[in-house]
Amino acid sequence: MGGGEGKERQYQVDIRLGNGAPEGSSEPLGALFAVLRKGRLMKRKDAMTTVGIDLGTSTTKLVVSRLRLANTAGHTRIPRIEIVDRQVVYRSPLYRTPLLNDSLIDMAGVGEILNAEYRRAGITFADIDTGAVIITGETATRDNAREVVMSLADRAGDFVVATAGPDLEGILAGKGSGALEWSKRMNRTVANVDIGGGTANIALFSRGEVRGTCTLAIGGRVIEFERGVVRRVSPVLKKWMQVTDMRLEPGWRVDHSVEMLCRISDRLAGCLAGVLHQRVGPLERELLVGHPPNWVEPPDAWMVSGGVGGMIAALLDGSRSASSCKELVIERAWAEDGFADMGLPLAYSLVHEQSFADLERIPAGETTRATVIGAGTQSMEISGATVHVEAGRLPLRNVPVMAFTYDPEGVPEEDLRQVLARGKQIYDPGGENPPLALAVRGLSGRHFSDLQEAAEVFSRVLGEDLPGGEPAVLIMDGDVGKAFGQCLSAAGLKSLVCIDQIQAGDGDYVDIGEPVMESGAVPVAVKTLVLDGPREVKKR
């Protein structure tokens, strides 16, 4: 995705047995995996092989990881199986994403790449325990995108499958780059800008939570070259130039247009800076893909991932030298490496854009390969025994999660509506109304009367919002699932799955299996990102 290079996301395994298992017992593990994998028994093991597959605007790539697991709870306590080491054992080259034409992905071409890379990695389908297929950027808009990604997911294991719309892509990239973890660790606000071939996906993180998203049609491939000539100008950029004093047409010689190309690159960098500062004028508005920036608290730092992020890192650390934007434009115009585009000039403009001066630049932990590393390996837990589940509603698979903190001192009803609206925007850009889980915080330890009051709010809002036939899925962080579920039922919300003692957050996906014990406890797999934090740097 971008500027000729990809973005790699990373996933965590965190397998736990919580309340509901006998003290010191580890035998339920095999049964729990069998429930979630619908009868296909997975033997207990101390290591797992995961595969990540990313189909992006510019590139397709595959990553194989080896995860080592260990029981960190000790022999006399309830087992707590966690990932203790992750090694990337194979990274494929970056392939140009194969296309049949402007609207169709070449499914056979993608299959050939993956088959060849499996052989080079020395693995077979039988070796793969789990993984993720992510289709992002402009590739996600191809007519057969869903057919391709589902075909790939069927090749092996329990794969997380996501056609990432721009908001979700930005959140995932921000997790993979380390932005979310940095915001949590530093107790600050950071904007991650994931710049690929066709888009710049912005996600704002503050103190470990997603605060907003925005996407711009800015990327390395908005202008492409061939043998010193402008070969393609993206339709959005053509329209954008109509409200500027700039002009560029396919067929123009680059040596006659280099000044104009650098002006365009600099102006795009300025628009990106303007959006980060929530300045949306006519130029920025033309580049918006969807909604304008929707965060309230401005960032005090920024990092860049994606292909252009990798190029920025190379320019800053000296591994890629350039004396001017013009030099890079001329070089890329004659490039024969498959990436004859504006990626490097755009990176140069972003490095030198003065509008970023008030923001601390944080190097991303992952840039070029921040899309899928290791892939969707399960984080399995047993819910608390105090759950409330309507009969016939389980199992549920691949339910996206949005976090919501209940604050009775604020306006909880309006806050809840905003979170649900953002969830639809991120996870359901096509309006298909899939289930959405709310990870509810702020209700643990409260009096029963407080739960009743909260239930009235949830029942009213969720009753209006739920798609036909779908249950409300609530994930409580404390031991209040059954009590809150009963309050919700009493308030009139009958279609309900309310579980507790599970930690999940924005960008996670959950699988919820059928009850496995008389207590009603259910197995839950939380598919979440492993975060490699950014390198520490001095403030510039």
Can you give keywords for this protein?
single chain; 540 residues; alpha/beta; 9-stranded mixed β-sheet; 7-stranded mixed β-sheet; 14 helices; disordered N terminus; disordered C terminus; Ethanolamine utilization protein
Report what the structure shows:
The chain has 540 residues and is α/β, with parallel strands linked by helices. The chain is built from 14 helices and 25 strands. The strands form five sheets. Strands 1, 18, 19, 20, 21, 22, 23, 24 and 25 form a nine-stranded mixed beta sheet that branches. Strands 2, 3, 4, 5, 6, 9 and 10 form a seven-stranded mixed beta sheet that branches. A hairpin with a 3-residue loop joins strand 3 and strand 4 (59-71). Helix 10 packs antiparallel against helix 11 and helix 13 crosses helix 14. It is globular. Mean pLDDT is 75; it is low at 1-45, 370-380 and 528-540.
Rg to the nearest angstrom?
24 Å
Q: What structural class do you assign from the helix and strand content?
A: alpha/beta
Number of helices: 14
Averaged pLDDT? 75
**Main beta-sheet strand count, sense and barrel state:** 9 strands, mixed
Distance between the termini: 28 Å
Which ranges are low-confidence, i.e. pLDDT below 50, for 5 or more consecutive residues?
A: 1-45, 370-380, 528-540
Helical percent range?
A: 25-40%
Regarding quaternary structure, what we see is single chain
Number of strands: 25
Q: Roughly what fraction of the amino acids lie in strands? A: 25-35%
Which geometry do the CA atoms define?
A: globular
Organism: Kyrpidia spormannii
Protein name: Ethanolamine utilization protein
